[in-house]
Specification:
The structure is a homodimer. By secondary structure, chain A is of the alpha/beta class. Chain A has 14 helices and 9 strands. In chain A, α1 packs parallel to α7, α10 packs across α14 and α13 runs antiparallel to α14. The radius of gyration of chain A is 20 Å and the shape is globular. Chains A, B: Belongs to the HIBADH-related family. Chains A, B: This is Oxidoreductase.
Amino acid sequence: MQAEKTIIGFIGTGVMGQGMIRNLLKAGFPVNIYTRTKAKADALISEGAEWKDSVAEVSAASDVVITIVGYPKDVEEVYLENGILAHAKEGTVVIDMTTSSPSLAERIYQEAKAKGIAALDAPVSGGDTGAKNGKLSIMVGGEEAAFHQIRPVFEAMGENIVYQGGAGRGQHTKMTNQILIAGGMLGLCEAFAYADRAGLDVEQVLKSVATGAAGSFSLSNLGPRILKGDFAPGFYVKHFIKDMTIALDEAEKMGLLTPGLALAKQRYEELAEMGFENDGTQALYKLYQK
Amino acid sequence: MQAEKTIIGFIGTGVMGQGMIRNLLKAGFPVNIYTRTKAKADALISEGAEWKDSVAEVSAASDVVITIVGYPKDVEEVYLENGILAHAKEGTVVIDMTTSSPSLAERIYQEAKAKGIAALDAPVSGGDTGAKNGKLSIMVGGEEAAFHQIRPVFEAMGENIVYQGGAGRGQHTKMTNQILIAGGMLGLCEAFAYADRAGLDVEQVLKSVATGAAGSFSLSNLGPRILKGDFAPGFYVKHFIKDMTIALDEAEKMGLLTPGLALAKQRYEELAEMGFENDGTQALYKLYQK
């Protein structure tokens, strides 16, 4: 697959999409873009992306269509409601990189397949920094042949690119990632609240605990932000709630009880109700402050 | 402080104590030992440790008395019930390295101080491997002068030796460590159960999630054991329940609600009731299996 000959369509130019589009352009791919608020695309257009006036136009004019939008309902709209699947050519590969519902990914896969379109679900982790630096972790579900065919597209955006199996398996892998984080954030915020309330010097405590059995990415990266009172998003509370809602729904469908995940979701909802939905996930600490 | 001139008394020759005593001997300290079951001390005696017939004898014959026993009630008995504090010489430094109650550590500190004895609370992390290799993380509370005075004793047993403040602060730091682990274990076991139930190849999932934002020591070290069905203890379920019980009691005393910790403790108690109290903490996964 040659970059210059594979035209990418990209829908969604939020903070993640912007970094990913820039890396696709840098790798030599022509990129058609569309997003609901055109102003968000202006900088990208001046950098070489080509504006299209609708989802339909992007879909019709591209060989690979990538989406990274907000919520599962946005994914559903952009693919299924007179959207991508209605307008993409046969042989197109469509890739949803939104963190979204595994069940919806399977539905899109089936509807796409009926039209001769290959659909991959490929959510990411690594945040805006990973998107900007082309160092995302990309978890891919769908048909393996399509995965191998468009691998250079993924390689322009990410580093840790792993095929996880059939349709929905990319999303399930991301859900696994989020369930791990949910438990970790409960532990992190309760532990810091405990240490603070016990009168410990929490920076000093980090020296004892960060490198041993209690060590984690969250502890080393979000712990110091909590200590500085820095609750700015990295990853938004409202998006984490969306992800945990999907994970909990899927777990219920599978008959799996996940009380830790349920508790984490409930605590983050309390936090959002207090008005902190646009903070970063480390703001869970606020629930434990006096 | 010269190793040859400082006589150590060591009470408790379980799997942790054995490794620690061997490292003290290796560093040149004479070590008096006592434990309830003498058979457990035989190998150590043949390697140079000196057997004493009671807590009283060890205490009277040593400059520094170290304990690592089972539960807070054992700590209370060995220090306060006609034990170490009744028999140690004025000027002795006593160090409890059991993971035990911060409140009890403060009580021992006060009673010791009244007799001219310096008490440190210095729980560890790093497990039997850390004890054997002299690589424990040691979290120390008590008077700073005593900490500096006996630092070479700690250095014979550990690597990451951090003074955390006044009496009880070593234990509070260890509780912080255990609260971090409690949340992490909930996340780990629920995430693995989710991934398995969703039909993912969990080893493949680890490739996507272990090095990113969901990464942790528990994930990288206990995750692969779960995949192999290896539930042997590293760290016993029953001991983790003890630690969480202490942490939850202390949190309640401070008026701090820690629902994540409370849930983790409740889940581990269910696991113990099922007969798995002598498994390793990764056995929490069993609660989520079909």
